[in-house]
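ok, trying the design again with the full structure, not the truncated one.
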């Protein structure tokens, strides 16, 4: 029998980088007896940061699934990366849980990713529990951090725990809900609850009342009895708290020290009691009428088991040895062995019931974001809402000849991580890899080396310049060659005209009286189009040109398609020179969101990048700035914005149109291109 949904709690640990999510998950697993030692980040021995790259960089790079048993419940824990470059996994994980456990540092309070993850969880209507961690550190303070949470996230953040002592003298925590204390186990398993220290009695009583007040405020019937002075049973309070947390009316704030395993018992109690079960809540993703449905939110490339898909069962029971339909690929997937994951460890599992989270290996086509159903049906795939990549690099193999291998391996990586985008620029021919941060792209390069044995270099991408003309011109192209026997002869006259908007290409055949036979005219067109691939200014493709083929001559024996192709290209080159050619550059539409106080600096910086401000809009403490900026000046924007805003700025951009490059800048690009061409010849 599969587990009943009432017996499951699904929780994703999210938050800013380095707030102790992985350490906290480690502590919970240890305290619940799912593991028998408390691993550390420093030793690279935690359950969830099992990947070599994670251990080397001492940070989470991917979502990791673990589970434990507490109070007869199965708690599925997803540890997610805090770094913005890897937030795709955090975003996807939030889609499959009922509760978000948001870790914050007791020193730093609310940070950039805290706010972002809070907003994501809010959009999804998730229950949110906060954990103020690292209270043993210097300058850590619970009450200040709580105030921070209340002003910056929500005034409905309510303390459910209280630390005993401060910084390195922290000795325990009080559970304000159950009115018990836990003393610091210093990294061992936490012991049972003890009496609240007498010197804290007054403060604790006060906070307990505050907590009760906020709970009963959310439940009218309870409120009435409470005001009449009736003693409420602990179960009644727990039920009301869970309901309020489920509806997002209370955000309980817990606290402790993850690395010492302090506060873990009370946190686990809180998750078990306060987070709704899959039975209590509709999932964010629903599939009408499917008896079995599972949503894949993560794909792991396992060095031994191959590709593993991690899924949440939306409805029905997923059993091993069954067949499901992948709705995107419209193909049947044979479900072989189901797996229960504990970090990198897999255990076979016969089935997963509704609301549970599990994994399966060896599916053929299934990827992150896919739905698996029991029968083919027209369904819309849930959109995970991943952020768009913000930085691009050109990737070249260290050794020549590896191009194909690099492309294939990068494609595999991009399949596993949808926020990693791979494309070839048709104009510059470069292989471009785009991601959410510098580390994001660098980690991909590390993986390329380690998993696929290919070494690559990263460069700034080339700007895909274009060329066009500004004036009408006319020229002749004549190709004549006499080599012993049969010669070559082609001759044409063309007129070039600029096209509106600098785009497109038209070829108009104006030949009268057959001065060039019909069969050779397409060859002229072909020759011109070939010549247009590399304009004479900077070797960039030419566009925005109409060609009129107006005159010419031929030779009955010596004329050929080849000869007319060459004649066409000669005519184009000569006409192009006289047509006042000009360089075009891509202009991007940029939208930057920055804290109000950074607006001046950000605008000044955009100005120095030839940016043109299009508008500004306030957004509650943040300002959204719209500007048009030439691509060449915004290639390295990510680093600048980070330093201008202390990491609190966000931006995205897309291609808008091509525009003429101002002449003083164009000359530099042209000189650069000439130099490169010379160097290539040597
Ligand atoms: N003093 C102290 N250090 C802690 C505590 N919790 C975590 N750390 C340390 O803080 C660092 C970051 O901890 P992690 O558990 O990796 O934090 P994380 O939130 O998982 O980090 P990312 O996955 O990179 O977002 C490590 O060096 C931990 O040992 C704590 O409660 N007290
Ligand atoms: Mg981590």
């Amino acid at each position: 029998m599969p587990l009943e949904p009432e017996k499951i709690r699904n929780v994703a640990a999210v938050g800013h980088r380095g707030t102790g999510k992985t350490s906290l998950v480690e502590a919970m697993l240890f305290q619940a007896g799912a593991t028998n030692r408390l691993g550390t980040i420093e030793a690279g021995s935690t359950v969830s940061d099992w990947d070599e790259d994670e251990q080397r960089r001492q940070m989470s790079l991917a979502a990791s699934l673990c589970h434990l048993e507490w109070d007869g419940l199965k708690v599925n824990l997803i540890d997610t990366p805090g770094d913005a470059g890897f937030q795709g996994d955090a975003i996807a994980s939030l889609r499959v849980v009922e509760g978000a456990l948001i870790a914050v540092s007791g020193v730093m309070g609310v940070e950039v990713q805290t706010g972002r993850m809070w907003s994501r969880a809010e959009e999804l209507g998730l229950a949110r529990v906060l954990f103020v961690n690292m209270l043993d550190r210097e300058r850590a303070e619970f009450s200040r951090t709580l105030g921070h949470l209340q002003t910056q996230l929500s005034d409905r953040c309510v303390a459910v725990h209280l630390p005993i002592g401060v910084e390195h003298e922290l000795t325990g925590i009080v559970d304000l809900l159950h009115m018990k204390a836990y003393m610091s186990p210093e990294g061992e398993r936490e012991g049972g609850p003890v009496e609240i220290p007498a010197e804290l009695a007054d403060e604790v009583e006060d906070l307990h009342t505050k907590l009760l007040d906020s709970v009963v405020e959310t439940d009218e019937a309870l409120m009435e009895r409470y005001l009449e002075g009736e003693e409420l049973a602990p179960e009644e309070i727990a039920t009301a708290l869970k309901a309020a947390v489920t509806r997002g009316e209370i955000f309980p704030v817990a606290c402790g020290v993850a690395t010492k395993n302090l506060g873990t018992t009370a946190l686990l109690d809180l998750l078990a009691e306060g987070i709704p079960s899959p039975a209590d809540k509709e999932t964010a993703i629903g599939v009408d009428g499917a008896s079995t449905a599972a949503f894949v939110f993560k794909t792991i490339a396992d060095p031994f088991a191959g590709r593993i898909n991690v899924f949440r069962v939306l409805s029905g029971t997923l059993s091993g040895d069954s067949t499901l339909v992948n709705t995107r690929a419209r193909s049947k997937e044979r479900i072989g062995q189901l797996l229960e994951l504990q970090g990198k460890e897999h255990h076979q599992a016969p089935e997963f019931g509704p609301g549970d989270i599990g994994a399966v290996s060896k599916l053929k086509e299934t990827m992150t974001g896919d739905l698996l159903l029991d029968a083919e049906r027209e369904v819309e795939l849930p959109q995970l809402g991943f952020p768009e990549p913000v930085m691009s690099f050109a990737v070249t193999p260290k050794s020549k000849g590896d191009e194909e291998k690099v492309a294939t391996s990068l494609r595999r990586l991009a399949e596993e991580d949808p926020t990693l985008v791979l494309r070839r620029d048709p104009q510059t021919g470069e292989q471009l890899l785009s991601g959410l941060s510098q580390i994001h792209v660098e980690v991909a390069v590390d993986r390329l080396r380690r998993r696929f044995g290919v070494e690559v270099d990263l460069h700034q991408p080339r700007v895909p310049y274009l060329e066009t003309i500004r004036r009408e011109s006319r020229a002749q192209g004549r190709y004549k060659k006499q080599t012993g026997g049969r010669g070559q002869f082609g001759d044409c006259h063309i007129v070039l005209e600029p096209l509106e908007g600098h785009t497109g290409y038209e070829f108009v055949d104006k030949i009268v009286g057959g001065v060039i036979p019909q069969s050779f005219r397409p060859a002229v067109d072909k020759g011109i189009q070939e010549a247009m691939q590399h304009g004479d200014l900077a070797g960039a493709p030419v566009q925005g040109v109409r060609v009129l083929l107006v005159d010419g001559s031929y030779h009955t024996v010596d004329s050929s398609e080849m000869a007319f192709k060459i004649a066409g290209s000669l005519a184009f080159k000569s006409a192009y020179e006289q047509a006042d050619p000009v360089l075009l550059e891509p202009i991007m539409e940029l939208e930057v969101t920055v804290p109000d106080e950074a607006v001046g600096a950000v605008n000044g910086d955009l100005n120095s990048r030839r940016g043109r401000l299009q508008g500004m809009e306030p957004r509650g403490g943040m300002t959204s700035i719209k500007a048009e900026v030439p691509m060449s000046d915004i290639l390295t924007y990510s680093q600048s914005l980070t330093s201008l805003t202390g990491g609190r700025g966000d931006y995205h951009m897309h291609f808008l149109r091509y525009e003429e490059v101002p002449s003083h800048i164009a000359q530099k690009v042209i000189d650069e291109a000439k130099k490169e061409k010379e160097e290539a010849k040597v």
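Keeping the full-length input from now on. The chain has a mean pLDDT of 92.
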